[in-house]
Specification:
The chain has 469 residues and is mainly β. The protein contains 4 helices and 38 strands. The protein has 2 domains: 386 residues, Methylamine Dehydrogenase, Chain H (7 Propeller), CATH 2.130.10.10; 71 residues, Macroglobulin (MG2) domain (Immunoglobulin-like, Sandwich). β37 and β38 form a beta hairpin. The N terminus is likely disordered. It comes from Aequorivita aquimaris.
Length: 469
């Protein structure tokens, strides 16, 4: 118990940004649609004045979820297993100087961190150390360091092969610098590729897409300033360029991600909005033939913000869009050149203009459904798609009042008798299960519930959000 008390004291003193449902287009001060705010941690809490990249790690031992956020002066590690009550566990300081740019990826329970700071190289941090933090927030030390390059813009990892690809270094003309990380704390230089311009960001996969000529090969998809670059990197000693993809009104080819069937590559150009006047533009390449990538179509959103990092999960595309925050698109009909914005959470509520503030990146891959947004100005956000995946049934036979409640909440019905009331917390755990003798009004004692947001299910059919003060 004594080990837990310092963490609890820190939480009470630090976290004031509690869960807020998205109602009538707002979650507190933040414009939204379909995404609830579960929590936010400010940059001040992290001891920095600037945020950047983010990634995530799920502990295979117990399923706990952790957000990893890049800062100007290091990397923050946050336990978001309970996303309403995140625990800032500590920071790994930068290896050299502070920098606007820091990038993080995960392989084999280790974080690999690079930065544009001079001489930074690649830090390696054993994430299993987060299991044993008893005096948060701690100041961590790196478990290993790779100095085969100094500054580095970004890092990409193919978890299937255990290779990291550092891009935007001073080596290989800024092209990918290969590192064998199969033994994470003993990274080994493995060559590189300098044959196709400076690379800003990339994705590397074992290819299983529609072009059977490359099935089973390790393919590198680079966003290389004015083009996409496709390279066969199966043999690290002999990487083979395959093709380039070009598009109109190019200004700075920034970052891209494959659809799950590996047929399409969705990229963003970081400067086309500010320099050409586009609304947020996504260019979708058809990669049915890797030797001949062609533009399938271009999509312009309703806002003018600059797009930054985008990731695909299933039939959804999660795009961090700077001043417009996180934007989520349905891409299930991408074959017919259709994509539709379905949800958003705007972390920069004062403007959607084409400037470099707001949401830097997003991590949508947690099994719980929690989504991490790292914001340059406002820190770490945790949001979720309609709490527990359940929508309020606002038009129903049942009413819940008062809401928010403190001690007693009353459920009433005009016609349908109340037979059962279940209450779930934000983790989806059932914490109350009450059965009644089919009356039209029931009082429920909620005084033992902690402040926060819950879901109430009535008669297994109607769901209501319940707020406890």
């Amino acid at each position: 118990m004594k080990k837990i008390l310092p963490i609890l004291a820190f939480l009470i003193a630090t976290y004031s940004f509690a869960q807020t449902p998205c109602e009538n287009g707002m979650a507190g001060q933040y414009p939204c649609n379909g995404l609830d705010l579960l929590s936010r941690i400010s940059l001040n809490t992290f001891g920095t004045d600037r945020g950047n990249d983010s990634w995530g790690w799920t502990d295979p031992l117990d399923g706990k979820e952790y957000a990893l956020m890049g800062l100007g002066n290091g990397t923050a590690f946050v336990d978001i297993t309970d996303p309403v009550n995140p625990i800032y566990l500590g920071k790994l300081p930068t290896h050299t100087d502070s920098s606007t740019w820091r990038d993080i990826k995960v392989y084999n329970d280790h974080a690999f961190i690079v930065s544009e700071a001079g001489g930074h190289g690649m830090q390696v941090f054993d994430l299993t150390r987060l299991r044993n933090v008893t005096n948060a927030p701690e100041t961590f030390t790196e478990d290993a360091h790779y100095d085969g390059f100094g500054h580095c813009h970004n890092i990409v990892i193919n978890e299937e092969t255990g290779y990291a690809f550092a891009v935007g270094t001073s080596t290989f003309g800024g092209g990918p610098h290969f590192v064998n990380i199969q033994d994470p704390v003993n990274p080994v230089a493995a060559g590189g590729f300098s044959g196709d311009n400076y690379c800003h960001d990339a994705q590397v996969v074992i290819y299983n897409g529609p072009d059977s000529d490359y099935t089973g090969r390790e393919i590198f998809f680079g966003s290389n300033e004015d083009r996409i670059s496709i390279v066969d990197v199966t043999n690290k000693n002999n990487p083979i360029p395959i093709s380039n993809g070009f598009y109109g009104s190019v200004d700075y080819t920034h970052q891209g991600w494959l659809t799950e069937d590996q047929r399409y590559f969705m990229i963003g150009d970081e400067l086309d909005e500010s320099n050409f006047g586009f609304n947020t533009r996504t260019i979708i390449f058809d990669l049915s033939d890797l030797d001949n990538p062609v533009v399938h179509f271009e999509y312009e959103a309703d806002v003018a913000a600059i797009d930054h990092n985008g990731y695909v999960k299933g039939n959804e595309f999660y795009l961090s869009s700077y001043r417009a925050g996180l934007r989520v698109f349905d891409i299930s009909d991408i074959e017919n050149q259709n994509m539709v914005e379905t949800k958003f959470f705007d972390t920069y509520p004062t403007s959607n203009s084409a400037r470099f503030d707001g949401a830097w990146s997003v991590y949508p891959y947690f099994a719980s459904g929690s989504i991490v947004i790292s914001d340059i100005d406002r820190g770490l956000f945790v949001v979720r798609d309609h709490l527990l995946g359940v929508n309020d049934n606002s038009i129903s036979n049942f009413a819940v009042a008062p809401n928010p409640a403190t001690e007693i909440v009353t459920v009433t019905s005009k016609t349908e008798p109340i037979a059962q009331v279940e209450i779930f917390n934000v983790l989806g755990q059932k914490i109350m299960d009450l059965n009644f003798t089919e009356s039209l009004s029931e009082n429920i004692n909620v005084s033992n519930l902690q402040s926060g947001m819950y879901v109430m299910k009535i008669n297994s059919t109607t769901t209501k959000r319940l707020l406890i003060d």
